[in-house]
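Record 1 of the preview.
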Amino acid sequence: ITSAALFLRRTLKAEFPIVDLRVFRNRNFSVGTAIGFVIGIALYGLVYLMPLFLGGVRHFNSLQIGSIMFVTGAAMFFTAPVAGRLTDKMDTRYLLTAGLTLVGIGSLMNANLTADADFNDFFWPQIVRGMGMLMCLVTAARIALGTLPPSEISNAAGLFNVVRNLGGAVGLAAMDTLRDIRVDYHWHQLIPAVNGARDVVMQQVQQFQGVVTGSVSDPAAAGIARLAQRVLVQAEVLSFNDLFLWLGILYLCVVPMTILMRKPVMQGAAH
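->
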C-alpha cells in the first residue's frame, strides 16, 4: 500500500513521469479502459473455463479439448475481415456494443451444461462468443485512444493493454475461487438428497456394489464412494453453470457504459 501511494504521488507530481496516469482524465480512455478490464476477464477466463470443464468433468484429452475450442478461433478468424471493414464505415461504439452483447449472450448459452456436454453444446455459444470477442478487441482500444492527442497515444496504449491483462489475471483468480466456493455450496445442497430412505439411492448403491464386487474388500463402502463421486461431478457442473451465467450477466451489464463514450476522432488508433 505504501509503495502504491508513493507511486501515485510521484506519477501525479512529476512533469514527465514514466507512466502518466493523468491520461485517465479523458473520459473515453477511462471508460474504454474499464471495458477493456472486463474484456480481459472473458478473453482469458473462457480459455480457462472450457478446458477445465472438458478435462475435469468430461475427462477429454488435449486433442479432444483443442478440437472443441478450435471453433472460437475459427469464428474470430472469419469475423476479423468483416469487423475490420465495418470499423471504417460505422460508429465503432455500435460495434463495441454488439460485441459485448454477443459475448454476454454466448456465455449465457453455456449456463445450462450437463455432465454429458460435448462439442454440440459448445459449438454455437463459441460461434457467438468468438464473433463478439473479435468485435470487442478490434474496437475497444480504438475508442479508448481515439480522442487522445497523438503525444499521449503510446503511453495510453501501454496502460490500456496492462489493464486488460490485469483483468484477465484478476478474472482467473476470481473464477477459480468462486468455482471452489460454488462446488462446496452445491455439494451441500445435493448431498442431503442422498440418503438410505430413498429407493432410487439404494438402487444406485446396489448397482455400484455389483460393479465392484470381487475387486474390493468392502463393496458397500465402495458403492457409496462412487455415488458420492457422482454427486461431486454434478456439483462441479453446477458451479461451471454459475460462472458462465455470471460472466454473461457481467458483459451485459457493461453494455450501458458505451453510452458514456464519445465518438472517436482518430480512427487509426493503434491497438
